[in-house]
Design brief:
- By secondary structure, the protein is mostly beta strands.
- The protein contains no helices and nine strands.
- It has strands at residues 5-7, 11-20, 26-47, 50-73, 80-97, 105-108, 119-138, 141-157, 163-178.
- A hairpin with a 2-residue loop joins strand 7 (119-138) and strand 8.
- The chain is elongated and about 70 Å long.
- The N and C termini lie far apart (43 Å).
Length: 180
């Protein structure tokens, strides 16, 4: 939403893998992302002729995303390999509002003061681009340093006046690589 939607600090977890496609350093990649956080939003929902509204309504946010992409490593076979990667994202995003009806008021209509929606979920689609370098510490163990830009758009949330939630993330990556 363009206004009245704030996310607090939360937890982000990421795990990924790759499979070699060619001897030239090209890989198929797969990843799973999780994000859990809290926040505040301007609640705006219509249900059977009743308009529910609230400012700074507390919520919990959860996202799960699958990513699929291609990675190109340079200088394959050396101990230091710069890379670029890009791909598509498919996600599930859920918002759960605090069930405290004192934060949400009936603005119009004759509906019950407890008839508002307390949770809503949607799929989301997006893309990402990543660049960085990988280094070997041992034959099956190494480190990864990089930066990842990620863009995700969700479906329209009825409780946010029909607006989509759009995420633009820039993540700095420091990870461990384990080979099998």
């Amino acid at each position: 939403p363009s206004k009245n939607f704030d996310l607090d600090k939360g937890t982000v977890a990421f795990i990924g893998g790759e499979v070699s496609v060619s001897d030239g350093g090209l890989y198929f990649t797969g990843s799973f992302n999780y994000m859990g956080t809290t926040g505040q939003a301007g609640y705006d929902y219509y249900n059977a002729g009743t308009h529910y509204s609230g400012n700074d309504v507390q919520f919990d946010w959860t996202s799960y995303q699958l990513g699929f992409g291609l990675k190109q490593r340079f200088f394959e076979g050396t101990g230091f390999r710069p890379y670029v990667e890009g791909g598509a994202l498919l996600g599930f995003h859920q918002i759960k509002y605090a069930a405290d009806s004192s934060q949400i008021a009936v603005l119009a209509g004759s509906g019950s003061s407890s008839g508002f929606k307390t949770s809503e979920s949607h799929t989301g689609f997006g893309y990402y681009g990543e660049a960085g370098a990988e280094g070997d510490i041992a034959s099956n163990f190494g480190i990864k340093i990089g930066a990842r830009y990620q863009r995700t758009d969700t479906g329209a949330f009825q409780t946010l006046a029909g607006q989509k939630v759009k995420f633009d993330w820039l993540m700095l990556i420091f990870g461990l690589r384990i080979g099998f």
